[in-house]
Amino acid sequence: xxxxxxRPVRExxxxxPGAPLRIWAHRGGSSAAxxxxxxxxxxARRAGVEWIENDVQPTKDGVPVVLHxxxxxxxxxxxxxxxxxxxxxxxxxxxxxxxxxxxAGLRVPTLASQLDGFQVRGGNLLLEIKGAHPRESVARxxxxxxxxxxxRRVFVQSFEPEHLRWVREFAPELPLGLLRSTLDxxxxxIAKDLGLSAYNPSETAFGIRPDIVAxxxxxxxxxxxxxxxxxxxxxxxxxxxVDGIITNRPAxxxxxxxxxxxxxxxxxxxxxxxAGELIEPGQRLRVAVGNNSPEPIAxxxxxxxxVNGASIDTTLLTTGWHTVTATVAGSTVEITFExxxxxx
Length: 344
Ligand code: G3P
Ligand code: CA
Hints:
- Strands 1-2-4-5-6-7-8-9 form an 8-stranded parallel beta barrel, surrounded by 8 helices.
- The protein is an alpha/beta fold.
- It has 10 helices and 18 strands.
- The longest helix has 13 residues, at 135-147.
- The chain has helices at residues 38-46, 87-91, 111-121, 135-147, 161-170, 187-194, 203-208, 212-218, 231-239, 250-262; strands spanning 22-25, 51-58, 64-66, 124-129, 154-158, 176-180, 198-201, 222-225, 244-247, 268-272, 278-279, 285-286, 288-291, 297-301, 304-306, 311-312, 320-328, 331-339.
- Helix 4 (135-147) packs across helix 5.
- The chain has 2 domains: 22-261, Phosphatidylinositol (PI) phosphodiesterase (TIM Barrel); 268-339, Immunoglobulin-like.
- Bound molecules: SN-glycerol-3-phosphate (G3P) and calcium ion.
């Protein structure tokens, strides 16, 4: 007898039509507080952001700690590679003063303390397994998550496919994202191979082939773009159909999303001719379409393009029904009118 082991059904991270962009707070609210610390995570929470990104690396003695760079030099008062320092040495470092004096004394968090913070203070963790990790390091990271029963509140991402394979092996229930600085030749293929919930390219890489969104969505895979901090790009990426933005400015993106939710949806209104209007050959007919947005509008009469306001020579129209369509921002309205035989 063959036993079939069912794969866990994971939540979809693909955005519903009209829904706001998902916000992933990059290293916490890192534009406002020291990155990858309890303070920057709290900034993101207070902005109402659900998902907070942190980077995890092992110390010399194998303790997972939250730090982005290979060394502690930039973001602490110490020096040296994180993998050459013990957890006890890292615990002595000041991870706040480099950002502002008011943050003096802030520590490099262990993954354990950061997960405890999520349990006590709320939020979900986008955990990047950063840099090289031996298999046992990834196993330990998963143990920290499992030990707290937090699988439903953690999303793992990495540039390293091997790390994602190990996570899949140790924790098949965890959603996975593949980070990319350059696009794969066929992203859905690697997404299927790794069992990804998300494919996460840089803004630059995505800009080369934005059509990957359609292909990945067809495969049920979300697309999140990093690291994007300006509203013009948020606007363009929303239109391109991406699902989420990884940003250093989560509070600002939350505000942008709120404005997006209040935005009037671009729509056309066909004012002339009116639906069902009866037109005699030779009668004056002007095509007039209202547009509530600055978006360009495309108008057709029986499938042929027409300029808004154009006067139509009705003697050239055959007797019977004709169709006017107007399309703005992908939304189309249409009416039909009838050309009738001249009344005697
Ligand atoms: O979440 C995407 C981003 O974190 C990847 O780049 O260097 O900031 O970890 P990096
Ligand atoms: Ca990261």
